[in-house]
Design goal:
The complex is a heterodimer of chains A (about 350) and B (about 625). By secondary structure, chain A is an alpha/beta fold. Chain A has a single domain (about 20-330), classed as Rossmann fold (3-Layer(aba) Sandwich), CATH 3.40.50.970. Helices cover about 30% and strands about 20% of the residues of chain A. Chain A has helices at about 35-50, 65-70, 90-100, 110-115, 120-125, 170-180, 190-205, 230-235, 285-300, 315-320, 330-335, 340-350; strands at about 60-65, 80-85, 105-110, 130-140, 140, 150, 185-190, 210-215, 235-240, 240-245, 260-265, 270-275, 300-310. Chain A has an 8-stranded mixed beta sheet with strand order 2-1-3-4-8-7-13-9, sandwiched between helices. A 3-stranded antiparallel beta sheet of chain A has the order 10-12-11. Chain A has a two-stranded antiparallel sheet with strand order 5-6. In chain A, strand 5 (about 140) and strand 6 form a beta hairpin. In chain A, helix 3 packs parallel to helix 5 (about 120-125), helix 4 crosses helix 5 (about 120-125) and helix 6 packs antiparallel against helix 9. Chain A is globular and about 75 Å long. Chain A starts with about 35 loop residues before the first helix and ends with a helix. Chain B is of the alpha/beta class and about 625 residues long. Chain B folds into 4 domains: about 5-185, Pyruvate-ferredoxin oxidoreductase, PFOR, domain III (Pyruvate-ferredoxin Oxidoreductase, domain 3); about 205-390, Rossmann fold (3-Layer(aba) Sandwich), CATH 3.40.50.970; about 410-475, no CATH class; about 485-615, 3-Layer(aba) Sandwich (Rossmann fold). Chain B has a 7-stranded mixed beta sheet, sandwiched between helices. In chain B, helix 1 runs parallel beside helix 4, helix 1 (about 15-30) packs across helix 5 (about 150-160) and helix 9 (about 265-280) packs parallel to helix 10. The chains are: A alpha/beta (about 350), B alpha/beta (about 625). Chains A and B meet through strand 2, helix 3, helix 5, helix 10 and helix 11 of A and strand 7, helix 7, strand 9, helix 9 and helix 10 of B.
Chain lengths: ~350, ~625
């Protein structure tokens, strides 16, 4: 457990565009193991929301069950949170989103939650292009029940008890690409420079934004032979690009070297700058993304960064042609057809 | 009998017979005579036997009656069985294009052959038309045989095919062919069975319960429907969609003031409903028994985390896949105690389409008032048959009851700490907030894990117990809010009572009349909701013996009565029916008679005993 968090904040701590300090975006004290990758991801979410100057109460944070799903308690204390049922967060988030399209939705899940018990819901949320930033804190094991292999554990990866995993791993990024997801990224809990801009970009994306974050379990899956340990991940990481996110209206001050940089304009006017580390890769081309992913996999590397994006996309409300006004604000006058209509319905049934 | 008979149509499914049969029933209804049509259909799309049974009852009895007076047979597959089902002295009307097999001849019923297929082949060129219009030939013949006013039938055809004049003409022609054939070949009308115009249906309507529920949800302000296809609830979701498209599309923007998602399974369906209600939209799902099984985990979450949820369970024959196209009331226990741990769910029991409609409003009001799931328990019989019903009524003066929800102003004024699960009013119902309401006040973490009054996770025993006890207090409060039972008399008249709910109502009331004729008086109560209100307890206390009518094997309703009211099981006797067909008054009468008088004296009408003394009662 992370028992201590300093109460002291610098009196001149920087404020964001809304005048809030970063503290305003924090949550309760984490009860996860000291050094847990998930706490770093929570920190990245806090930082991203702070830098993006989102109103915390305009965010809804939802999760399933498991270590990862506990984390929404540890960020954005002024947001409503929903720790739902194991593997079923996508459906609860879908319902919430249907009720109010104006909130921003952050879904937090784990590899057990999304790749096993909740695989069905994960898959269908992508199909519907639910407007959510969906973060998988992926550690290849079931932490809360003491370290059983999960469905994302790589074939042959050795767990803490020394046993090699017998089964093929499910690659959530590959799956999402296959399913037509419109924003697919992978990162590492230990790489904030990459993770924070990816979360910001995901939040700006008007559809399903998957960020699969390798987030090592220090207690049960950080041993030698594990392919989801800190050491292994650091050694095998292959980034597609250095990522920088520029929100809408912000003046671009950074100089980007010509030729290596791809700028992707997002739907809301924000821009992602990808300082490409790999010349043979185009994040707007699904085929190229799939290719790159398989190449990395074949060479034993973990591909990270923004892997695919389709900025212009139609989300669930757009597909359903729902009113732009949130459904939860419609009044009886609009909703109830009235007595005259009922009279004619009755008449037609005689 | 004049205005009193049962007619059954034996068809092949997928041949368009449903539409012709509906016209037949509607015509009698429009002649002011009570009718009760029931579909008896297979779990199949095309090619298997399907039946449509219409009871015509001058006295207004809408329950099913055993025994077929007139069988209309256009399905050779089921012919032997159909012939066997005709009551002695009854009629068997069949397609005589092919000669009837001589082994099928019974000497105690009348056979009327009409070469329907041949007539169609001669008259119509289009193969699909030949098949569809064959059904109109027998409708035409029946109009002659039963004395149905032809103008009424023509009116129905005109209404149904409005703007499709070719179809109107073709249907008229087919009907007229059948009618003329009957006049030429048979003595019309039947001496025993025929109809004569009455004024008995008044302002009533004919509607299926699923449509009424779907429309009720529109009136109740539901904006989000998430569902998964399952018989017999699918047409409920369809109806919501149909009415929402008619009444909920913004005339200016063309955008929908509703959202419907066909989920990937029942788990996702109820998950979306819970998510939407959590976020302040009225949302519901419709399903049947197998779906309720799958939704149970989520129903536990909604109960424990206190999220309004509305679910319509159109019950069918269980367990497992069971009998998907037959009716039962066998989901009571799983619904009442859905999910693991200590849970109790609010149930509503409509018995007419008018109640399906209005109870959807009650369900949403209760769900939001009590912040808990409300399950509307209908069944296939009510949901998928065109039931005669009082007209739909909606109390427009009543605002939607959105329950205890703090708005931004209330939160702004608040000086104390917001406690999501604090029992502020002493009724067990806490206050909730909707996400996005206030920048710094009222946010909380919804969870299925134990928590304290401020929604903070806790594993402390006392805090857990306080919460569980408050939920029981809320359950007690619910008893004041749920619809009370209906008593069918002013005062207590008998030592014996009969309890029933939902679709057994018609048969139970008819049985009560039949028993009264035999000298057995019964006090009757129809229960409309669970938890049971005080009146139900009193009714049981006030009677020496209570018969409980229900459509399942295990007397689930009786179990609820015993479990929740502590009623003495010895004074409760179950009248059960679980073969998948709606219960008949005769079954109820017979079983109660056997219990109170004994099996000795069939047929029942010959002996009219007085109200039996206690010593006569057999256990």
């Amino acid at each position: 457990m992370t028992f201590v968090r300093p109460v002291f904040r610098h009196p001149e701590a920087p404020k964001n565009a809304l005048g809030y300090t970063k503290k305003f975006y924090e949550g309760a004290l984490s009860t996860l193991c000291a050094g847990c990758g998930h706490d770093s991801v929570s920190g990245a979410i806090i930082q991203a929301c702070f830098e993006m100057a989102v109103e915390p109460h305009k965010v809804a944070k939802l999760s399933g069950i498991g270590c990862s799903s506990k984390t929404p308690t540890y960020f954005l204390a002024n947001s409503h949170g929903f720790n739902s049922v194991h593997g079923r967060m996508p459906s609860v988030a879908t319902g919430a989103y249907l009720a109010n399209r104006d909130l921003m939705y952050i879904g937090v899940s784990g590899d057990g939650d999304s790749a096993s018990i909740g695989m069905g819901q994960f898959v269908h949320a992508i199909r519907r292009n639910l407007n959510i930033t969906y973060i998988i804190m992926n550690n290849g094991c079931y932490g809360l029940t003491k370290g059983q292999d999960s469905a994302t554990a790589d074939f042959g990866s050795i767990n803490k008890s020394g046993a090699a995993n017998l089964y093929q791993a499910i690659d959530m990024v590959g799956l999402a690409l296959e399913l037509g997801a419109t924003f697919v990224a992978r990162s590492f809990s230990g790489d904030k420079d990459q993770l924070i801009p990816l979360i910001k970009a995901g939040m700006s994306h008007p559809g399903f934004a998957l960020i699969d974050v390798v987030s090592p379990c220090v207690t049960f899956n950080n041993n030698v032979g594990s392919t989801k340990s800190y050491d292994y991940t650091r050694e095998h990481i292959e980034a597609t690009a250095a990522v920088d996110f520029v929100p809408i209206m912000e003046e671009i001050t950074t100089e980007y070297a010509e030729g290596d940089t791809v700028a992707v304009q997002l739907h809301d006017g924000s821009t992602i700058h990808l300082n490409k580390l790999s010349p043979d890769f185009n994040p707007r081309d699904r085929h190229s993304a799939v290719n790159k992913l398989y190449h990395a996999k074949a060479s034993g590397e973990i591909l990270t960064g923004l892997i695919f994006i389709e900025p212009e996309t139609r989300d669930l409300h757009s597909l359903l042609n729902t009113t732009t006004q949130p459904l939860n604000t419609l009044e009886k006058g609009v909703l109830c057809p009235g007595q005259q209509a009922l009279d004619s319905i009755n008449a037609a049934l005689r | 009998m004049l205005n009193d008979f049962v007619i059954r149509f034996a068809n092949v499914n997928g041949t368009g017979s449903a539409s012709a049969n509906d016209m037949f029933a509607k015509a009698i209804f429009r002649m002011g005579i009570p009718v009760s049509p029931k579909n008896i259909f297979p779990s199949n799309i095309q090619g298997l036997p399907t039946w449509y049974e219409v009871r015509v009852s001058e006295k207004g009895y809408l329950g099913r009656r055993e025994g077929v007076d007139i069988m209309v047979s256009v399905n050779p597959q089921s012919m032997p069985k159909d012939i066997a089902n005709v009551k002695s002295g009854g009629y068997f009307i069949y397609d005589s294009t092919k000669e009837l097999y001589k082994d099928f001849i019974r000497d105690d019923i009348h056979y009327l052959g009409i070469p329907m297929m041949q007539m169609c082949m001669d008259k119509f060129a289009d193969p699909r038309q030949r098949q569809l219009l064959k059904n109109m030939i027998y409708v035409g013949a029946l109009s002659a045989l039963l004395n149905i006013e032809i103008e009424v039938l023509q009116g129905i055809i005109q209404q149904k095919f409005k703007g499709k004049e070719k179809l109107v003409t073709a249907n008229y022609e087919a009907m007229e062919m059948g009618r003329q054939f009957a006049f030429e070949h048979f003595t019309c009308p039947f001496a025993e069975f025929r109809v004569e115009r009455r004024d008995l249906v008044k302002d009533w309507i004919m509607m299926d319960g699923n449509s009424a529920c779907g429309l009720g949800a529109v009136y109740a302000g539901a904006t989000v429907l998430s569902w998964y296809p399952i018989t017999p609830s699918t047409s409920l979701a369809d109806a919501f969609g149909k009415y929402a498209k008619k009444y909920r599309i913004d005339p200016e923007t063309g955008q929908n003031n509703f959202a419907i998602v066909q989920a990937e399974d029942e788990l996702a369906a109820i998950g979306m409903v819970i998510g939407a209600n959590w976020n302040g939209a009225r949302s519901f799902t419709a399903t049947s028994g197998p779906g309720v099984s799958l939704m149970s985990e989520f129903l536990g979450l909604a109960y424990f985390a206190e999220i309004p949820t509305v679910l319509v369970d159109v019950q069918r024959g269980g367990p497992s896949t069971g009998m998907p196209t037959r009716t039962q009331q066998s989901d009571l226990l799983i619904a009442a105690y859905a999910s693991h741990g200590d849970t109790k769910q609010v149930l509503l029991f409509p018995s007419t389409p008018a109640e399906c409609f209005s109870m959807m409003g009650v369900a949403f009001d209760l769900a939001e008032r009590l912040q808990t799931p409300v399950l509307v328990m209908t069944d296939l019989d009510l949901g998928m048959n065109e039931n005669m019903s009082p007209p739909l009524k909606w109390d427009h003066s009543k605002p939607y009851d959105r329950g205890k929800v703090f708005n931004a102003e209330q939160l702004e004024q608040m000086t104390e700490r917001f406690g999501r699960y604090l029992d502020v009013d002493g009724d067990g119902i806490p206050y909730r907030t909707i996400p996005g309401t206030h920048p710094t006040k009222g946010s909380f973490f919804t969870r299925g894990t134990s928590r304290d009054e401020y929604a903070v996770y806790t594993e402390e025993g006392p805090a857990y117990v306080r919460n569980m006890d408050r939920l029981v207090k809320k359950w007690e409060t619910a008893k004041q809010y749920v619809p009370g039972p209906e008593l069918y008399q002013q005062e207590k008249q008998s030592a014996f009572g009969m309890l029933f709910f939902g679709t057994t109502t018609y048969a139970a009331n008819e049985a009560r009349d039949l028993l009264t004729e035999q000298g057995i008086t019964l006090d009757c109560m129809r229960v409309k909701a669970f938890p049971f209100s005080q009146e139900v307890q009193q009714f049981i206390d006030n009677h020496q013996r209570v018969f409980i009518v229900e459509q399942n094997r295990d007397a689930q309703f009786k179990s609820l009565i015993i479990n929740e009211l502590g009623a003495n099981p010895a004074k409760l006797t179950s009248i059960l029916n679980y073969d998948g067909f709606p219960i008949t008054a005769d079954v109820i009468r017979q079983k109660i008679f056997e219990q109170l008088v004994g099996k000795l004296k069939p047929p029942f009408a010959e002996h009219v005993p007085g109200e039996p003394s206690e010593s006569e009662v057999s256990e």
